[in-house]
From TrEMBL:
EC top class, as a word: lyase
Protein name, per record: Uroporphyrinogen-III synthase
Assigned EC number: 4.2.1.75
Molecular-function annotations in GO: uroporphyrinogen-III synthase activity
GO biological process, any: protoporphyrinogen IX biosynthetic process
Catalytic activity: hydroxymethylbilane = uroporphyrinogen III + H2O
């Protein structure tokens, strides 16, 4: 069986069996001095990451919770539910460009506020503008790459013939900051943006697969399946 490594952030929930969690990222909150004013001027919120929800709760607890919320997938949907909030809109296709296309119609005549990280995979605001929706944004967090010590790298480097799971372009960059990519590894990516970044950064000899699933847990189950694990209930 091939070992499965998940490149993830510090203090992640390590709930899945047979998964090696490599914590190479850290979420750092960023203060926006105009946040409260932006919330007051908005009538709905957009989230493309659960980290954006946690960051907003950190900076503006309670204040945002009466506004309708639009999310891109189950991760963000579940994060809202942890605060007792039901998403007003959940994307049918959880990718950035498709999300923007879907949102355009739903947000007609609204004043949305996009809560986001410092770097995003798609230009959602431009997509919405092309649909006649003019959103504002608030950047409340960033993904910081953690640099392992030489000793840690020696201990944690993925074994030969491993499957390495990347859920975002930032996780590929975090991996390469700490380890070299070996030709016998398999990269499994969520989304075309992440796969394209993998093609660019891992080299032409890299074996790169696009997960048929769009949720992290389902993708990890798929990784285990191709790794030779028995994943049947």
């Amino acid at each position: 069986m091939k070992k499965v490594y998940y490149i993830t952030k510090k203090n992640s929930n390590k709930a899945m069996r047979d998964i090696q969690y490599l914590e190479l990222l850290e979420i750092c909150f960023i203060q926006d001095d105009c946040l409260l004013e932006k919330i007051k001027k908005s009538d709905c919120l957009i989230f493309t990451s659960k980290n954006a929800i946690f960051a907003l709760e950190h900076f503006a607890p309670q204040i945002w919770k009466k506004l309708p919320c639009c999310v891109i997938g189950n991760g963000s949907k579940k994060a809202l539910e942890s605060f007792g909030i039901k998403a007003e809109f959940v994307a049918k296709n959880p990718y950035g460009v498709s999300f923007g296309e879907e949102l355009g119609e739903f947000l007609a005549n609204k004043k949305p506020l996009f809560i986001r990280g410092q770097k995003v995979a798609s230009n959602l605001l431009e997509i919405l503008r092309n649909k006649g929706v003019f959103a504002t944004e608030s950047i409340l967090y960033q993904n910081k790459i953690l640099k392992l010590s030489q000793k840690q790298r020696g201990i944690l480097k993925p074994k030969k013939d491993s499957i390495v799971f990347f859920s975002a372009p930032s996780s590929i960059k975090a991996f390469l900051k700490n380890f070299s990519w070996e030709d016998d590894y398999i990269a499994l990516c969520i989304g075309k943006t992440t796969k394209n970044e993998a093609k660019k950064l891992l080299g032409e000899n890299a074996e790169i697969l696009l997960s048929p699933k769009v949720e992290i847990e389902s993708s990890l189950e798929f990784a285990k399946e191709i790794g030779g694990y028995n994943v049947k209930n």
